Amino acid sequence: MGAAARAARAVCDNRCMNLRRSLPVLLLTGLAGALAAVLVAHMLAQKSVTLQGGTWLPEPRALARFQLTDLQGRSFDNHSLLGHASLVFFGYSNCPDVCPTTLATIQTALRQSPIANLQVLFVTLDPERDTPGALSQYLRALGSTAVGLYGSAAALAPLERSLGALAERREALPGSYRFDHTATLYLLDGQGRMAAVFSPPLSASALSADLHTLAGASIL
């Protein structure tokens, strides 16, 4: 083999070696690019979710650690929210209008709920009067399947702050009081994060339609 042929072969060998070395990098780069494209497409698809009666959060908001008690005396905390979506409403049994109306609206919307194992949580702002027995009777009287929860003001505070819920006790006649409170309904995803907010006035038909939209988007 002449000198020119040996030189040409050496150049070819070097180029082949470089190609073999760079091929895994090129493949990994291409794979990463494809995954990034899928992720971006998924995020853009999520951002297109529009609700009739609520606002969906493109980035679900994590909740602070909290611990309440259900009507059977069992602890209810962040771990109790995992594995299924939840609707959360703050109220009290002596509420004259907003609370019973909201619970009735939710119950109507749930008749055609497409979200499996969706639970409704009714968090009382008035544990002084809403004892487990009283709150259980109140929910049964309204035909509500909501899980009643209670706790001290200090125990409620982390959950209220995380969701942006407000409540203020107002003294009325001697020995009587009421609460001015947020009438918002909060939707939590299966990881216990706030995923959507429904502001009053609530409509059973709009809430039902929104639950179908969210179920179709597979984001809960």
Question: What key attributes describe this structure?
Answer:
alpha+beta; 220 residues; Glutaredoxin; globular; two-stranded antiparallel ribbon; 5 helices
What does this structure look like?
The protein is an alpha+beta fold and 220 residues long. It folds into two domains: 1-48; 54-217, 3-Layer(aba) Sandwich (Glutaredoxin), CATH 3.40.30.10. It has five helices and ten strands. Helix 2 packs across helix 5. The radius of gyration is 28 Å and the shape is globular. 28% of the residues are buried.
Q: From the 3D coordinates, which CATH architecture of the largest domain would you assign?
A: 3-Layer(aba) Sandwich
- Order of strands, widest sheet: 1-10-9-4-5-6-2-3
Number of helices: 5
CATH superfamily of the largest domain: Glutaredoxin
Total beta strands: 10
Radius of gyration of CA atoms, rounded to a whole number: 28 Å
CATH topology assignment of the largest domain: Glutaredoxin
Give the overall pLDDT as a whole number: 84
What number of structural domains do the residues give?
2
* Regions with little confidence, pLDDT below 50 for 5+ residues: 22-46
> How many angstroms separate the termini?
70 Å
The run of helices and strands is HEEEEHEHEHEEEEH
Structural category is: alpha+beta
Helix content: 40-55%
Strand content: 15-25%
